[in-house]
Write a structure and sequence with these properties.
Layout: H1 3-15, H2 56-66, H3 71-78, E1 89-90, E2 103-105, H4 123-129, H5 132-148, E3 153-154, H6 178-193, E4 198-204, E5 224-226, H7 229-236, H8 238-245, E6 250-253, E7 257-258, E8 261-262, H9 267-277, E9 283-286, H10 295-300, H11 339-346, H12 352-368, E10 387-388, E11 391-392, H13 403-413, E12 416-420, E13 433-437, H14 478-489, E14 494-498, H15 504-513, E15 516-523, H16 548-556, E16 562-568, E17 583-588, H17 596-604, E18 639-641, H18 650-655, E19 673-682, E20 728-738, E21 744-753, E22 764-773, E23 778-786, E24 792-794, E25 799-801, E26 806-812, E27 818-825
Parallel strand pairs: 2-3, 3-4, 4-6, 5-7, 5-18, 6-9, 13-14, 13-15, 15-16, 16-17
Antiparallel strand pairs: 1-2, 7-8, 10-11, 12-17, 19-20, 20-23, 21-22, 21-26, 24-25, 26-27
Helix pairs in contact: 2-12, 3-12, 5-6, 5-13, 6-8, 13-17, 14-17, 15-16
The protein binds beta-D-glucopyranose.
Domain Fibronectin type III-like: 746-815
Enzyme class: hydrolase
Protein name: beta-glucosidase
Length: 826
């Protein structure tokens, strides 16, 4: 440790017992005994928007607008206007400019709480396709639907990583690998914003579990995710950075704390990382009621306080100006900002220039995504009725177009075939009698939208629960789709379905007569504000719901040809039944959205050759994962320390030589692929690599920029990272031959092994490509390694560096099934 760092540490340690987080005095939040090293430093002032990269004209236009606004008008845009708006959240209006305020709407898989809109496959499913185009197409279609409903911004994509297998909201995001999640985030952002809707990448950051996440009352326990600088950059911030590089115009700060400080007032996170390091040009919005202070949040870099009131459920009923029990943000008593922010400006606590910057960023985001001030929502999330209190609120605009086709395609492309002894694809001419078992095959008796925000596990599982949901316009369940398909192709077939998970006698009876059986099982999770079957968002365990293991057993005991279909939010344990010879195939179908049954039929009967790949590892036992949910804590701030650092998911299994049941990247096909002829071409670009994105131009004293003296890229700041991040350092080509008899997609994966001195995991994903190859044909696959891909975050120089030594390139069908190996020197 250098003298300077030692000095800083000593100062911090000396301060912690007395200090409370306070931006004004520059004292960081303290840590409880035993966690002293986990303190988030203060980074002020907030860097104003600069109009870098493609943002110049949007920022100029926003500046022009903001220069015409009064302080009151500006404050209207910074502060949410409560919960009684058309959209789940939104700001005040600018009547003088005919602007009705920002409409901010969930969710990451469709337009939440409305009618005539689609229910797309969850984020975890589009990640399981490993298909960049499908990721983009899904974002584009969701953008179109939000646009059609008059929404300015989607609260999505959500890109927190699957650090803990039971994490309640993992399914909203893109799995357990930052590179895969980064690509999915970028593609989703591009798709959404190409349809003139702002994408808000959430929840920044360290929000990997639901227990103690925050967002409730003033006295609740809120956890601190203790994350070291390198892990933060290489894992948890990475997907956000990729989103920003793709142009994401908004970032949401999360409920939790990182290194003791509440995220929405964590100046290191907002000012330091998002605005300085990532040169973010859009605006930072708080998660709903994630704000815990007024002046501190403003100075720390928050730009929009949503939904404007202090806390959920703590205000008096205020005559409909907000939700019945939330304080009206118009009233000084009920908002951290609003008129309190005006006071803070007037008394000098917050410079007005900071408020100008907040509003400039908000409008720059609007203009950057091709919007103007005229858009207004044509629905109301509070009701599907046409009128609310006598006012027309819902025009029932149908935005579904033919998105059902894309949903069906993604659903099928995301199915991971885990096991197949030869029964798949099912030859419909061959079987005379089907048995279909389990509630997961059929409808929810209360209707597809019977449980608010999908807060129950009834019927087939096609999305988790919470704010990350949308209403189903219809739900093609598997039982319906299979019956219809078989009936249409072979009408003289018997099909008997037992949808009661606990009626083992009936399952036994049907199974004993059937020549093909399908057992449907699931595992559900969601957001903390709803508890389902004692699961408070996070799952209590990794077993199947409704004793799914017993449903499988009831089938396999009598039916030697049982196909298991799993709809799950994340990993479950398969050990009880996976090796049972009567389990002849297993399809891992995730959360496929409204077309779930059709997607399944496509794979089951062979219209689609499966190509989905696991976006996380399926372990043999829960304890094999490196980290778990913190369920119980009596600390005021429960401490969740990311001790495993870079070693999550497959990185951990590789490093510890733990044999998983099915590894990250795994998935079978109806055909076979062979790999050959690996070549690596270095582009001869200089290794000069101590690049970062700090921009000294906005501070007068350049010594404040930590690396100003030697950083050659200093003036190349660009949203999401320096331009040089995208330098192609290596091109990798190889051949893939479809050696089977069916056309199909292969998902080729590139993993990189760093020089030992870099202390990276044994291998990390750095590229992938889903390629269509006809039977008996060969394709040449080309991949690139960019400067960022071969860099690591250096905590001393606070920049990305390329370590010296030998790099190994692994080309494989999964993280463990490596087919080709090469190397290069740096
Ligand atoms: C969730 C966010 C969501 C917001 C608005 C919060 O509770 O964490 O993901 O966008 O509510 O509904």
């Amino acid at each position: 440790m250098g003298t300077m760092s030692l000095l800083i540490c000593l100062v911090l340690v000396a301060l912690w017992p007395v200090a409370f987080g306070d931006i004004v005095s520059g004292v960081p939040d303290s840590a409880p005994p035993g966690f002293e090293e986990w303190i988030s430093p203060i980074v002020v002032p907030a860097k104003p928007v600069s109009g870098d990269g493609p943002w110049a004209s949007a920022v100029a236009r926003a500046r022009d607008l903001v220069s015409q606004l009064t302080l009151d008008e500006k404050i209207n845009i910074t502060t949410g206007a409560g919960g009684n708006l058309a959209c789940v959240d939104g700001t005040g209006a600018l009547p003088r400019f005919n602007f009705s305020g920002f409409c901010l709407q969930d969710s990451p898989l469709g337009v939440r709480d409305t009618d005539y809109a689609s229910a797309f496959p969850a984020g975890i499913n589009v990640a399981a396709t490993w298909d960049k185009q499908l990721m983009y197409d899904r974002g584009f279609a969701m953008g179109a639907e939000h646009l059609g409903k008059g929404v300015n911004m989607i609260f999505g994509p959500m890109t927190n990583l699957g650090r803990v297998a039971a994490g309640g909201r993992n399914w909203e995001g893109f799995g357990a690998d930052p590179y895969l999640a980064g690509v999915a985030t970028a593609q989703t952002v591009l798709g959404i914003q190409d349809n003139n809707v702002i994408a808000c990448v959430k929840h920044f950051y360290g929000n990997e579990q639901e227990h103690y996440r925050g967002g409730g009352s003033s006295s609740e326990q809120i956890y601190s995710s203790n994350i070291d600088d390198r892990t933060a950059h290489e894992l948890y911030i990475w997907p956000f950075a990729e989103g920003i590089r793709a142009g994401a115009a908004s970032i949401m700060c999360s409920y939790n704390k990182v290194n003791q400080t509440q995220n929405c007032q964590n100046s290191k996170l907002l000012n330091g990382i998002i605005k300085e390091e990532l040169d973010f040009q859009g605006f930072i919005v708080s998660d709903a009621a994630a704000v815990r202070s007024g002046v501190d949040t403003a100075l720390a870099g928050l730009d929009m306080h949503s939904p404007g009131f202090f806390y959920f459920g703590t205000g008096p009923y205020n005559g409909g100006a907000s939700l019945p029990n939330e304080g009206n943000p118009d009233n000084t008593t009920y908002s951290w900002w609003g008129s309190n922010l005006i006071t803070a400006v007037m008394n000098g606590s917050v410079p007005e220039s900071r408020v100008d910057d907040m509003v400039t960023r908000a409008f720059a985001a609007l203009f950057f995504t091709g919007q103007d001030l005229t858009r207004t929502p044509n629905f109301n999330y509070q009701t599907e009725d046409t009128y609310l209190n006598g006012v027309l609120v819902n025009e029932h605009v149908n935005v579904m177009e033919n998105h059902g086709q894309l949903i069906r395609e993604i659903g099928a492309a995301s199915i991971v075939m885990l096991k197949n002894t030869g029964v798949l694809p099912v030859d419909v001419t061959k079987y005379r009698r089907y048995g279909i078992f389990g509630s997961d095959a059929g409808p929810n008796p209360q209707g597809p939208n019977g449980c608010a925000d999908r807060g129950c596990d009834q019927g087939t599982l096609a999305m988790g629960w919470g704010s990350g949901t949308a209403n189903f316009p219809y739900l093609i369940d598997p039982n319906m789709a299979i019956t219809w398909y078989v009936y249409n192709n072979r009408p003289d077939t018997m099909i008997e379905s037992v949808l009661d998970d606990y009626d083992y006698a009936s399952i036994n009876q049907v199974a004993s007569q059937a020549d093909i059986c399908l057992a449907f099982v699931n595992a559900d999770s969601g957001e903390e504000y709803i508890t389902v079957d004692t699961n408070e968002g996070d799952r209590n365990n990794l077993t199947l719901w409704h004793s799914g293991e017993a449903v499988i057993n009831a089938s396999t005991s009598y039916c030697s040809n049982t196909i298991v279909v799993v709809h799950s939010v994340g990993p479950v344990l398969l050990e009880e039944w996976i090796d049972n010879p009567n389990v002849t195939a297993v399809l891992w179908a995730g959360l496929p959205g409204q077309e779930t049954g059709n997607s399944l039929v496509d794979v089951l009967f062979g219209a689609v050759n499966p190509s989905g790949r696991l976006p996380y590892t399926l372990a043999r036992q829960r304890g094999d994962y490196p980290a778990d949910v913190l369920y119980e804590s009596n600390m005021t701030t429960p401490q969740i320390t990311y001790y495993e650092r870079l070693m999550i998911d497959y990185r951990w299994f590789d490093a510890q030589s733990i044999v998983p049941r099915y590894e990250f990247g795994y998935g079978l096909s109806y055909t076979t692929f062979n790999y050959s002829s690996l070549s690596l071409y270095g582009q001869g670009i200089s290794k000069r690599d101590d690049v970062n994105n700090f921009d000294a131009r906005w501070v007068t004293d350049t010594s404040m920029a930590p690396t100003a003296t030697y950083n050659p890229y200093l003036n190349q700041t660009y949203p999401g990272g320096p331009l040089s991040f995208s330098d192609t350092m290596y091109t990798v080509t190889f051949k893939v031959t479809n050696s089977g008899l069916r056309d199909g997609y292969e998902v080729a994966q590139l993993y990189l092994g760093f020089p030992e001195s870099a202390m990276e995991p044994p291998k990390v994903l750095r590229e992938f490509n889903r390629v269509w190859i006809k039977a008996e044909e060969t394709s040449t696959v080309s991949m690139t390694l960019l400067r960022k891909d071969i860099s690591i975050w250096d905590v001393i120089s606070q920049s990305w560096i390329i370590p010296s030594g030998t790099f190994t390139v692994y080309i494989g069908k999964s993280s463990r099934d490596i087919q080709l190996t090469g190397s290069f020197e740096q």
